[in-house]
Design goal:
The structure is a single chain. This protein folds into two domains: about 190 residues, no CATH class; about 150 residues, no CATH class. The protein is built from five helices and 22 strands. A hairpin with a 4-residue loop joins strand 17 and strand 18. The chain is mainly beta.
């Protein structure tokens, strides 16, 4: 597994405006935006964060001017930082974003909190105005993604931020701007940008954490993988890695990488993400059906051997490994678990695991064939 992007922190604090209401925009903006402060009304929005936007609509037969109130969650004209509270089925706790007062710097970052504790911060493309923020999981990996909708350069626009978990820091996450998927959504929706429409375009309306069956989940995942990797000839398989009777979905870019998705309690996770194989150190991945036992055969300049793994807490965890030397008969065994084993016990444990009936993890079916299996 690999982290594709990484961001470092730099945040800024000023006075606080708490915003709890998200308003879905009813139409796109067609003229210049004028922002004026207004007093607090029944929506609960504070004066510093409520903007009045004048929109001129041109019809085919006649034109008319309407003044519409659009609630702004944040703008470059805001006199203070904004706090936006969000919810997700994937997080036990309340999510809050702190968007700093704009100061013109490209180094400003948005803070991501859970139950008041900062989990991470991320670099953000600050637009002129933000009018909607929603959470989702559009790539079905079990991590929170964030959709921002607003205005930039006088036009309605949106920004997708994909949530990722650091491989060796499971309690922390990071967010990256997903411009490739943004390009797909732009083609699908043209300019009908709302958080709901954007999320539905990527998920077919499925909410991770509320999915009724693994077949529905996996069909949506296949469709997303085809979108994300449209130039690749992906292959798919249903495999039984863990002990239950619900299969895992394997996605294979043959000779390069595999992804594995798992379904449990109405939720999809991705315990194996872009696990590279083929050329390089890892030849292939194998598993023992229904035993939650995986391994790969690796080789380096001096050693070769198997690395043994399992899926734990929706993550791929290394348990044991062996280092065999090309020029020697010596084999070193490594224990990555908390279990205290003597050298002889460790050797026996690794040999016992390696004696199991492993099968290769690979994709066998096309998109159409796997969809038919999931019907």
């Amino acid at each position: 597994m690999q982290d594709l992007y990484t961001w470092k922190k730099n945040s800024m604090k000023r006075g606080i405006n708490i915003i709890t209401k998200r308003v879905v925009l009813a139409a796109s903006l067609a003229c210049a935006i004028s922002i004026t402060a207004c007093s607090q009304d029944s929506t609960g929005a504070d004066a510093d964060t409520k903007d009045i936007l004048t929109k001129v609509e041109q019809g085919e037969e006649e034109s008319s001017e309407e003044t519409k109130e659009i609630e702004s969650l944040w703008s470059k004209e805001s006199a203070s930082e904004s706090r936006v509270k969000l919810e997700s089925k994937l997080v036990d706790g309340e999510i809050e974003l702190i968007i700093p007062q704009y100061n013109g710097s490209s180094d400003q970052r948005v803070e991501y909190l859970i139950d008041g504790e900062k989990n991470c911060d991320f670099n953000f493309i600050f637009p002129e105005q933000i009018t909607e923020i929603e959470t989702c999981d559009y790539n079905f990996d079990g991590n929170v993604d964030i959709v921002f909708v607003g205005y930039n350069h006088g036009k309605k626009d949106f920004w997708l931020y994909r949530g990722c978990v650091r491989e060796y820091e499971e309690d922390t996450c990071y967010f990256v701007n997903d411009d490739d998927i943004e390009s797909y959504v732009e083609k699908e929706l043209t300019d009908d940008y709302s958080a709901e429409n954007i999320i539905n375009a990527l998920t077919n309306g499925l909410v991770n954490g509320e999915i009724s069956s693994y077949s529905d989940a996996y069909k949506a995942i296949v469709e997303f993988n085809q979108i994300e990797n449209e130039s690749l000839d992906l292959k798919y398989s249903l495999v039984y890695i863990d002990e239950d009777d619900i299969p895992e979905l394997l996605v294979d870019d043959t000779g390069y990488w595999i992804n594995v998705y798992s379904f449990s309690n109405s939720t999809v996770t991705e315990p194996m993400e872009y696990c590279g194989y083929g050329l390089g150190g890892c030849l292939n991945y194998e598993y023992v059906p229904y035993k939650n036992s995986l391994r790969y055969y690796g080789h380096g300049t001096e050693t070769y051997g198997y690395t043994l793994m399992k899926i734990e807490n929706n993550k791929l965890v290394t348990t044991y490994s062996e280092d065999c030397y090309y020029e020697e008969e010596t084999v070193n065994y490594n224990n990555y678990t908390d279990e205290q084993l003597s050298p002889e016990e460790l050797k026996n444990r690794v040999e016992e695991y390696n004696s199991c009936a492993f099968e290769e993890l690979y994709g066998e079916y096309t998109e159409e064939e796997i969809i038919e299996q999931l019907q």
